[in-house]
C-alpha cells in the first residue's frame, strides 16, 4: 500500500519536555517508513531540543565556529549548519508527498507559506529571499534577519525534518556557527521583534495555518 489511506487525518504530536535529538531522528526514521507502508498516518511533531548544532548535506566545516560549544549532529537533511534549542519551536513534518502532488519544490514553497502565515498571526511580515533559505524579516535599521529555518529530506516521497521558528531562544547560541552558511545577515526571534507570544500560542497558529496551506 503506497502511503496512508486517502483522507486519513494528520496526527499532531506535541512534546512539552526537551527532546533528545537522536531520539527524534530515530522516531522520524521509523515514522517515515510506516507512512510509506501505510501503517501510520502523516505526522507533525512540535517540540524543542536541548542546545545543539546540526549540519545538513551542504554544510562546510569552516561554518562551525565553535565545535566544542554544543553537540554537533550531521544529518541527511538539506541545508547547512543550524542551531536548535529551548525557546525555538521545531516542527517536524512527515507527509506523504505522493498523495500531495509529488512536487518537492511546491512542498518547500508550502512550508515557507506556512511559516509566513503563522508569523502574520502575530503581526510579523515574514518574507522569502532568492538564494537564501528560510524566512526573513526586516529588523531595526533595515537589517534583514532570519526568523525561521527550513531544512527537509525526502525519502521515497515521504518528507521529514521541517521548520524551526525562533520564538524566544538564546540568540547568543547562534554565534557558534554561521547560520545556514550566510554570514552577512543576523538572526532574530519573535521576542526580539517585540512579540511576546508563548510556544503554545505559536503552536495554535501553526495548526490553524497548516490546513489553509496544505489543505488537510
How would you concisely characterize the structure shown here?
Helices cover 23% and strands 28% of the residues. It has one domain: 2-Layer Sandwich (BirA Bifunctional Protein, domain 2), CATH 3.30.930.10. α2 (104-120) packs across α3.
Could you walk me through the main structural features you see in this protein, from its secondary elements to its overall organization?
By secondary structure, the chain is α/β, with parallel strands linked by helices. It has one domain (about 10-215): BirA Bifunctional Protein, domain 2. The protein has three helices and eleven strands; from the N terminus they run E-H-E-E-E-E-E-H-E-E-E-E-E-H. Strands 1, 2, 6, 7, 8, 9, 10 and 11 form an eight-stranded mixed sheet that branches. Strands 4-3-5 form a three-stranded mixed sheet, with no helix packed on it. A hairpin with a 2-residue loop joins strand 7 (about 125-130) and strand 8 (about 130-140). It is globular and about 50 Å long. The model is unreliable at about 1-5 (pLDDT under 50).
